[in-house]
Specification:
single chain, alpha+beta, four-stranded antiparallel beta sheet, 5 helices, about 35% helix, about 20% strand
């Protein structure tokens, strides 16, 4: 992602329809507890971190037969957040029987929905507060997201093709950084599930 400050002139925005015209939600998240299980001491501490400043889309899984838990946040899909947290929790849990305890979703959205897909909270904030404000008259930019945790964006390119290619590479680099921190089996799961694929969700050009 480019981070160089500049004064921008916002011009006409042109959308590239991918991820079914990926929706953007607000900049606030809420946590919904979906389980009656009792948390252990370590799990309580981890849940406090998950819920103190929630970021959508997120999920918190626990192993009711041990002290393990795993949390993820800032995903582009509630399903991706749930499945990733469950998979990574079970990697360390013995027995591998982690269960969903809570999720974080955009304020006002159904925490039990299977269809919540869109910009993550971090992507939404950066889209509104940085990506749009950096665009310049006569130049090109693009924003790419995945259903996982990664996204990338660009501005100040001399063609739409260059802006989109660069945004995809920033998104993929973001994903690789995340995958480098987990086990091989977890990388394989995320790849097979399609959560490592980046797509252009917005292209900027000026008339």
């Amino acid at each position: 992602m480019f981070k160089t400050p500049s004064i921008a002139i916002i011009a006409t925005l042109i959308y590239a329809p991918t991820f079914a015209d990926t929706p953007k939600f607000g900049e606030e998240a809420t946590v919904a507890v979906l389980s009656t299980l009792t948390l252990g001491t370590d799990q309580t501490a981890e849940f406090a971190k998950f819920s103190e400043k929630p970021r959508y889309f997120g999920a918190f899984y626990i192993n009711p037969f041990g002290g393990q838990s795993f949390r993820v946040s800032d995903y582009g899909s509630l399903k991706a957040a749930r499945e990733t947290a469950e998979n990574r929790c079970n990697t360390d849990a013995s027995p591998a029987k982690c269960q969903l305890y809570a999720v974080s979703v955009p304020k006002g959205q159904d925490a039990k929905s299977d269809d919540l897909v869109g910009f993550s909270q971090g992507a939404t904030i950066d889209f509104n507060e940085e990506y749009l404000t950096q665009q310049r008259e006569g130049r090109f930019g693009a924003f790419a997201v995945s259903k996982g945790v990664s996204y990338g964006y660009t501005w100040d390119w001399n063609s739409q093709a260059e802006a989109e290619a660069s945004a995809l590479l920033f998104c993929e680099a973001d994903m690789l950084e995340d995958l480098a921190k987990v086990y091989i089996v977890e990388r394989e799961f995320s790849t097979k599930a399609g959560y490592t694929t980046c797509k252009i969700t917005h292209s900027y050009s000026s008339n």
